[in-house]
Design brief:
Residues 94-322 form the Imelysin-like domain. The protein contains 11 helices and 9 strands. The chain has helices at 86-120, 123-138, 144-147, 150-155, 172-182, 186-207, 216-232, 244-266, 273-288, 304-321, 323-327; strands at residues 2-6, 13-18, 25-32, 37-41, 47-55, 61-62, 66-68, 291-292, 295-296. Helix 1 runs antiparallel to helix 8, helix 5 runs antiparallel to helix 6 and helix 8 runs antiparallel to helix 9 (273-288).
C-alpha cells in the first residue's frame, strides 16, 4: 500500500503508522515540514492500524483505526517495532552512568601512576602507563557529551597544521603523548601530566552531579565505531605513539558496553541483534590480534590484506549497529 502523508500543521511533524493496541510501529516518517507531503509504501497483513501524528510543540493527534481482514496469504509484510519510551531508557542510562562512575577512579589512579613515572624520569614506563590510562578513557565514548568541555581538555585531537608537541593549545593525553614520544624535556611532560590530573579530578567531581541523556546511549552505540573509523583508522589522532589500533580496541569495548545494556530492549525489536553482537566480537578479536605483548602494530605497517579486512569488518559493524538509534528513538506510546 502506498500512502501520501501531508502535514497540515504549521510546524514540523512526526507521523507513525502503528498498531493502536500496543503501539507497534510499521512505518515512521520524521520531520515532515509544514505543508509538505511524503509518500510511503508498506505491506500490511491482517490487523488494525492507524496513523499517529506528533506535531512539534502541539498535542498528538490519533487517526481513525482501520481494520484489514482479508489479507491472508500476503508475504513480505512490513515488520512492526514496539516503541521505546523514556521509562525503558532511563534504567539503561542509569546503569551506564554507574559503569562510567566506576571507571573514573580507575582512570584517576592510572594517570597518577603516569605522573609518578614522569617525575621519576622513567620514559619507557611512562609510555606504557600513558597507553593504559588513555585506553581506559577511550572506552567511555557514550559519556563524552556529559563530560562537556573537560573532554577536550583531557583528550582533544592534535591540530593538523602544527606538530603536537609544539601546539600550545593542545592539552591532555595527546599533548603528553607528543612530548613522551618526541623526547621532550621532563619539565614539559610534568606540566602536561599535572594538567591532565587536574582535568580528571574536575571530571570526577562534575560527573557526580550530571545525568546522562537516556536518548544518547543508543545513538552512541554506532557513533563510537563511526568515530573510530573516522579518526583512528586514518591516524589523524596519532601524536607519536602509533597506538591507533589499541584505541580502536578500546572504542569497541565501549561499544560493547552500550550494546549489552541495550540488549534487553533490542532482543524483540531488532532481528539482527545477534548478527551485530557477532560482528562486534569478530572486530574485537581481529583488533586484539595486532597487540604483541603491549606493542601494537602501527597503521602503516598493516599489509594490504590486513587493512582491507579491518576496514570491511568495521564498516559491516557500523552498518549493523546503525538501526539501533532509530529503534530506540524515544517516543510517546500510543494512547
Amino acid at each position: 500500500m502506498t500512502f501520501a502523508v501531508t502535514n497540515k500543521f504549521g510546524a514540523p511533524m512526526d507521523v507513525y503508522l502503528a498498531d493502536p493496541s500496543d503501539g507497534a510501529v510499521y512505518q515512521e516518517l520524521e520531520g515532515i515540514g509544514a505543508g509538505a507531503t511524503l509518500m510511503t509504501t508498506v505491506t500490511l497483513g491482517n490487523g488494525r492500524y492507524r496513523f499517529e501524528c506528533f506535531p512539534a510543540d502541539e498535542s498528538a493527534v490519533m487517526g481513525p483505526t482501520v481494520t484489514i481482514g482479508a489479507a491472508s496469504g500476503i508475504s513480505g509484510t512490513t515488520p512492526a517495532v514496539r516503541p521505546v519510551t523514556q521509562a525503558d531508557l532511563i534504567p539503561v542510562a542509569k546503569a551506564y552512568q554507574a559503569w562510567v562512575a566506576g571507571r573514573l577512579p580507575v582512570l584517576r589512579s592510572q594517570v597518577g601512576v603516569l605522573a609518578s613515572d614522569v617525575a621519576a624520569g622513567d620514559t619507557a614506563k611512562a609510555k606504557a602507563d600513558w597507553l593504559t590510562a588513555h585506553l581506559t578513557y577511550e572506552t567511555l565514548g557514550a559519556a563524552y557529551d556529559a563530560f562537556g568541555d573537560l573532554d577536550s581538555a583531557i583528550n582533544a585531537a592534535p591540530a593538523s597544521d602544527v606538530p603536537a608537541a609544539q601546539d600550545t593549545n593542545l592539552t591532555g593525553f595527546h599533548k603528553i603523548e607528543a612530548l613522551l614520544w618526541s623526547g621532550a624535556p621532563a619539565p614539559a611532560s610534568q606540566a602536561a601530566v599535572a594538567g591532565l590530573l587536574h582535568a580528571v579530578d574536575q571530571l570526577i567531581t562534575q560527573f557526580a552531579t550530571v545525568d546522562i541523556d537516556p536518548n544518547i546511549i543508543a545513538l552512541r552505540a554506532h557513533e563510537i565505531v563511526e568515530n573510530a573509523i573516522q579518526f583512528e583508522l586514518n591516524g589523524t589522532t596519532d601524536a607519536g605513539s602509533h597506538s591507533n589500533l589499541a584505541t580502536i580496541g578500546a572504542n569497541l569495548v565501549g561499544a560493547n558496553e552500550t550494546l549489552n545494556l541495550l540488549s534487553a530492549l533490542l532482543v524483540n525489536r531488532y532481528p539482527k541483534l545477534s548478527s551485530a553482537k557477532a560482528a562486534l566480537t569478530a572486530a574485537q578479536r581481529l583488533v586484539t590480534g595486532f597487540d604483541h605483548a603491549g606493542t601494537w602494530t602501527p597503521l602503516d605497517e598493516l599489509t594490504r590484506a590486513q587493512r582491507e579486512t579491518l576496514d570491511a569488518q568495521l564498516e559491516n559493524l557500523v552498518e549493523l549497529l546503525a538501526p539501533i538509534a532509530a529503534i530506540c528513538d524515544e517516543r510517546v506510546a500510543s494512547q
